[in-house]
């Protein structure tokens, strides 16, 4: 009997402590939140608002410098910022989305693709800021250039594009000089292919290839080159009811890539790429290819400790199928790095101050790591200087300047209907082309048929 | 009066009991039961994960019909079955042979067993990355095969026909240690008198292996077949790291496709439907094995 009493007592006390545990927690959080709000209302000056800024770039590649600069400038205005990194992949973006949906502790965040921007804007995860911008006297089209217009949806701004995108080919200038080939200002596919052939030398493990297509990171990337002729929304036929995968431009481009890999043997094959898990760093920066795709690897190019090299990297425009038909400069989308405000933030106005500061030049501390500001009010020499920082000896300034020039003929993708599915079909087809299994014409026309099913 | 007291005492005991298991039950309900039922529910909707909770329409099993017309699904299903058909028999038979050799003909049993068990307890991500290097054209595995006389070995992970086999080889290598361990402990428990009787009758080692060892280990084999099969149907990590389903769809397996549909296409409803089909498949296969065991499993 006594024993039983004890068990009941222990059980009951366990239950009570458990409940008390819950209660204690909620009590604590109540306390802190009340402290917060009182701190805000009464003593704003000694306890600044700390904005939580989420971005996908590792803190040491610019964001920390940016936030530090902001904190220094806004010290007396009662605003501070703190950078939190999320990994910019599917999983990381999902984490950001769920945190936003759950009303999490985020004030400002970056969005990296237009499809995510639309999704977040229409899903209540990113604040519509057009009226706030007009109140601040900021007209995106005027201040950031015409290429922002595709990212304004029926007058709604879900995030300000801050970074200009452009798409260039990396070239090992020393190898070009050695082979006596001048750096081209523009070139056709045929000229490009010839050059790659001339630059290929050696055999086996010591072979130096003319071109490294970097098809492993995203097999889709080289196909952006077709945008020079096809322009915006190059994946869809007009009307958006059919995909454009069988377009002759795609066929010509991808057949050339495949031929360079398997016929000329002047480019690293996709198979080698997959089986050895290669990268721009392990091929181009190791001196194993004369050219590559991947201006975005500027962080690695400048990191001489991790990737020691002494050659000069030049930026070359992408080849085009036909010089007279190529009307567009390409980006993967002309603008990127959309800075957004969390609609559930408690400090929306202060967050907007940060957004404006960042867009209007605060982001310049990111430029040495490859992020080129869109804001027209920044002196272009300053941008060049920032971009060249710590890379004066290994970057070819003459060609980099051309890359950094403001361009008004950027091709911009806006149609995103069923894009992930269409891209997967496209990727499967590209894989069969780049492994030499199928020719481009048949693989792409088959791909078009299966991709079209998603648009019905 | 007495009855009432007794009832309440019973009640008290119940309360005590349930209080003790309450934390566990709560955890089970929140983290297992609820997600389970929720996934069953959304598998009948067209829920797009990005549209937020509540924005779904019922499509009355359309997901379950659609998947059979979906080429990515059917090839993933095919690859899963093919993979299991390779992994299960090879890894179990090889483990049995190795366990017998280890137990009866081997010096330094313990270090040997440990060496074979190492891959199993190593992190699968690390193991997969090491194997990517092994398979590369300049990797040890490829060079070894070249040295053995195969002049143009396949591109392994980059080859449509060999990629799945390459993953299978790695999976067998990494999981075999566990099977060996289970088999060796079962072998140690086998009655010696049967073997002695066979020796008296003049049976050869091979005959003893096939007529005594295999039949008396059948309960262990049965257990391993079921667990290995379930594991191989759920393979994900090596695929994600080594091939990402490629080239083409040649190594896309069901769980990887569920992941793609859910987190690349954001079609949670469809992904859940596939997950439930995978569950049903596993259930059916296991039930068939359970029925079939009467024919070949003997518990003495």
TrEMBL record, chain A:
The keyword Repeat does not apply. Keywords: Signal. InterPro entries: Bact_solute-bd_prot1, SBP. Residues 1-22 form the signal peptide. It holds the Pfam family SBP_bac_8. This is ABC transporter substrate-binding protein. PANTHER family: ARABINOSE-BINDING PROTEIN-RELATED (PTHR43649), DIACETYLCHITOBIOSE BINDING PROTEIN DASA (PTHR43649:SF12). The keyword Ligase does not apply. It comes from Ruminiclostridium papyrosolvens C7. It comes from the Bacteria.
From TrEMBL, chain B:
It is found in: Cell membrane. It is a multi-pass membrane protein. Belongs to the binding-protein-dependent transport system permease family. Residues 77-289 form the ABC transmembrane type-1 domain. Its main location: membrane. The chain crosses the membrane at residues 21-44, 81-102, 114-134, 160-181, 221-243, 263-288. One of its GO terms (cellular component) is plasma membrane. It comes from the Bacteria. Keywords: Cell membrane, Membrane, Transmembrane, Transmembrane helix, Transport. GO terms for biological process: transmembrane transport. SUPFAM superfamilies: MalF N-terminal region-like, MetI-like. This is Sugar ABC transporter permease. Pfam families: BPD_transp_1.
